[in-house]
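Request:
You are asked to prepare a plain-text protein record giving the amino acid sequence and the backbone structure tokens, at your earliest convenience.
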Amino acid sequence: MIRRLRNGDRRLARLREAARTDPRARAATFVVIAGLLTAAALLFAPPATVTYDVGAVADRAVRAPRSVAFVSTSLTDAEREKAAAAVQKQYATDPGVVVSASTHLAGAVTALGRVRNDAAQTRDQKLASAQRLAEVQLTAAVAQDVVDMTPPEWDQLAAGIDSALRTLYGQGIRAEQLDAVKADALKAIPAPWTDRQKRVGAELLRQNLHANVAPDQTATTLAQKDARDAVVPVQVQVAVGEVVVREGDVVSQLQVEKLRALGLANEGVDWRGAIGLLIWAGLIAGVLALFIERFATEAWLDDRKMILVILSLLAITAAGRALIPGHTVLVYFAPFAAIAMTLTVLVGGRTALATQIAGALHIGIMSGQVELVSYVLVPALLGMAAVRRATTAREFAIGAVAVAAGNVGVVLAFLLVGRTSDPLGIAQLAGGGLLSGLGSGLLAFAGMAILGHVFRIPTVFELRELGDPNHPLLRQLLLRTPGTYHHSLLVGNLAERAAEVIGADPLVARVGAYYHDIGKMRNPTAFIENQTGANPHDELDPLVSAGIVAAHIKDGLALADRYNLPAQIREMIPGHHGTSLVKYFFQLAQQRGQAPEERSYRYPGPRPRSKEAGIVMLADGTEASVRSLTEKNPETIRAMVDRIIDERVADGQLDECDLTFRDVQKIRDAFCELLLGVYHERIPYPEDRIARIKPAASG
């Protein structure tokens, strides 16, 4: 069991190391963590939803949190079924029935004609033969009419009976109409015919009448489909505040549809929707990771800052999920801008902007409203601009006012575009915007202090405390190494000015410069600025002296850990020398005829990685070198500044920080300007001469 735990710890350690060193692993880790957390928040059922099925009894009333228009499936289906039911049955005529009936009728007439014309039979025999014919079934009375009919009458009947048959079939005969048509067969007989012609003709017609029109199911189905398709979908409007379901109502299909359209229906797991939200969360996390990795490298490489980014995105998403869609007005009271303002101070403006945009997009997919996306994003940009430096509490107050103005502006813009004329609703939303702005300012100020402490991200106020001369570490630096202390003050002034001109953080640069040489307190006399007598290095081997000098890096880091200095300040301790050469002792070894190995005379590093650390490196070397000049004038100072900076650049000490050649040129000018002010020429004052007054002669 213990072995398994150890193996698990090792795997976790390897994963952590990969996430820190491998860019792809780091990006994948961020996308997985941020994507899964935000997806969980998106998939969580909002508290405002209800589970009502058709036929259920509502246990509470539900009002529409917003206006919505949708196509009602139930009403549209009802209208379509009504249109389909109104379609009459479609019939098809079978021409074969008429042909068959006509043929059969002709056969009957021919058979009766043979009986009539049979001279070998008596009248009674003819009557009997006519009744026995298979082609036609005649009663005795009708058979008698056939036999007794005169030849002209028979010829007229034989010639006209088929026409009468086709007349009856002409309008089509349905099965349900057959009996009525047979009853009215006599009407098809020509009026001039004699009575016995009519009786015989009617009987022949009746026996050859059949239904020739039958229902056509295919045609009927097509006609019903056309009728359904012609129905315009029924659109339903739901107004904000409308009672969708009343308490005690038996829920109808239309009410369920309204709840669905408003996003208030909790119908269990929607797998298609869930997959869509998972894809969305992963996509947003991936885009956010790509942006920060490309455009905010300093934040991307800091685990604590990236954890804060993930938690901030999760906070926006969870707040939106809790308030959308059920709380129409309450969502406008949420201080969304506080997230962007806090991240601006603790992580950086670009990262804060990207995170706020990602959160606003999550709000958009939950609400489907451009208005809420704008409400989350636009005021936050104003708040970020107001607290960009966050040097005083006043900036947070200004940020609160800016956010409130942005909130009210967004609300009024969308209300005017939507032509809303509800005074109470307008007042509620505007009030929500004002309170949201105030809350954003207060939460951002508190969040900066609390989260900065929890995640060990130095804030302006913490840096100011570190820059206070009464800080215990600076107090010790002054008392134990006064030369180093004053050197650090001047380096701080140089670094601050250089940071200002290139757009870096002046406060970080200045405070970092104050602490960059704190390691010299362990062995003050090993450094020339603290020596008041003999130099201990005169009796030592150059390699030993180089090791003693380089040791102030390790000693400084130990003090930084003991006093919990922030990482930004701690970086200045090894970064102000980087991996540069302890040049004096290296050259001294060469002068003494030794063959020194350059690697043994270099500082342990690492080289500076931030702009501020790079500035402190240049300021440290420049100040010490200029102070060593015997003649300090504009030419010698400029030459020394150029020499020190060129050496650091040529040695590759600035390769890992973001300083550009333009930045370096601005830093040169800033250093020269400030050093010329410090070492300006002075007017030589003559020595004070004391005029001696002769004592007065005694009287």
Q: What stands out?
A: Strands lie at 62-63, 68-71, 91-93, 213-215, 235-238, 243-245.
